UniProtKB/TrEMBL annotation:
PANTHER family: 3-OXOACYL-[ACYL-CARRIER-PROTEIN] REDUCTASE FABG (PTHR42760:SF115), SHORT-CHAIN DEHYDROGENASES/REDUCTASES FAMILY MEMBER (PTHR42760). The keyword Membrane does not apply. It comes from Paenibacillus gyeongsangnamensis. InterPro entries: NAD(P)-bd_dom_sf, SDR_fam. Belongs to the short-chain dehydrogenases/reductases (SDR) family. This is SDR family oxidoreductase. The keyword Oxidoreductase applies. Keywords: Oxidoreductase. It holds the Pfam family adh_short_C2.
Amino acid sequence: MNLFDLTGKTAIIIGGNSTLGGTMAVGLAEHGADVAIVGRNQEKSEAVAKRIEEVGGRAKCFSADATSAEDLQRVLAEVLEWTGRADVLMNCPGMNSTTPFFELSMEEWDNIMNVNLKSVVLACQIFGKHMVEKGEGGSIINISSVSSEPPLSKVFTYSASKAAVNNVTKYLAREFAPARVRVNAIIPGFFPAEQNRKILSPERTESIMRHTPMNRFGDAEELQGAAVYLASDKASSFVTGTLLRVDGGFGAITI
């Protein structure tokens, strides 16, 4: 048995045109999944689709605002028209900010919460409902962050949003379990993605390295194994409600 064979599965990657989301999308495609890349930036989505095609996979781009229920309903219908299936949902939109707490406006708070949390809830409602009603099981993978437990300095709203993602993950794991729809989260450590480069000063980088036993940043490809594992209903059939760390040991050290 090939535990990691995703042939015949359709994976919907919301935020699949991002640095980490796109790389995980390629990993799922390499293991046989048809991949729906969902995002607002079509140029970036098409670049990911091209990478997938170069490794022999199949992908299609879908334009949507991840915070719009109407857009996500449309994407579900379009994906079903494309392959007839929706087996794996990965939620990886992300917005960050270094605004100090006393300077934080509620407009910025709402924007970050909408992208990081509301999008996850909406996608789980829409795609999760389809999986539950279809009765064939499924896998939902939410992308959390090491800032979720405990929070990181300088990223207050981001940390709060990712802590909520962890809670949503565990809640829905219990809610969807009778329908064999598994809900898990990946907690990435520090990867040089676009959204966190702006806060990686030399001093911050030094602090991160002191708290990362492997003493380096992660490469985006190092998230592919976790994504494929959680997507596979063979490899992780009894895994739900889990927060899987891929962080170089960051969560295993305090001082």
